[in-house]
Design brief:
With about 120 residues, the chain is mainly beta. Helices cover about 0% and strands about 50% of the residues. The strands form 2 sheets. Strands 2, 4, 5, 6, 9, 10 and 11 form a 7-stranded mixed β-sheet that branches. The protein has a 4-stranded antiparallel β-sheet with strand order 1-3-8-7, with no helix packed on it. Strand 4 and strand 5 form a beta hairpin. It is globular.
C-alpha cells in the first residue's frame, strides 16, 4: 500500500500556470507507474497523464497534450504535474494515483489514491 498526498492546487486565471505535487510514502516509489486524474462536477474521473516507473514513458490525454507535463523525482518520492495555458475547462479536482505496474495508460488499474486537490481556472 502507498499513501499519497497532493498539493499545489488553487485559483488561477485562464492562460496561467500551476504545478501540482504528489508526495508518496509506503512501498518503493520507484517501482510503479503514477498518474494524475481529474474529476469535474457531474463528470467521470478521467486520466490526464501517466508516467512510468523510470520516467521514460509518459501518456497524456488529448485535451492536455502540449500544455501539461508529468514528471517524477524518485529520490524525493514525488510526482509532479506542470499545467500551463490553463483553460476554464481544466477546472476540476485533481487526484494523484499509483498503479500496481511499472508502465500505465488509460486501461491501467490504479490501486492507491490521494485525497485530491482543487484546481479552479477563471475566465
Amino acid at each position: 500500500q502507498v499513501q499519497l498526498v497532493e498539493s499545489g492546487g488553487g485559483l488561477v486565471q485562464a492562460g496561467g500556470s500551476l504545478r501540482l505535487s504528489c508526495a508518496a510514502s509506503g512501498r518503493a516509489f520507484s517501482s510503479y507507474a503514477m498518474g494524475w486524474f481529474r474529476q469535474a462536477p457531474g463528470k467521470e474521473r478521467d486520466l490526464v497523464a501517466a508516467i512510468s516507473w523510470s520516467g521514460r514513458t509518459t501518456y497524456y490525454a488529448d485535451s492536455v497534450k502540449g500544455r501539461f507535463t508529468i514528471s517524477r523525482d524518485n529520490a524525493k518520492n514525488t510526482v509532479y504535474l506542470q499545467m500551463n495555458s490553463l483553460k476554464p475547462e481544466d477546472t476540476a479536482i485533481y487526484y494523484c494515483a499509483a498503479a500496481d505496474v511499472g508502465v500505465a495508460g488509460p486501461q491501467t488499474a490504479f490501486g492507491s489514491w490521494g485525497q485530491g486537490t482543487q484546481v479552479t481556472v477563471s475566465s
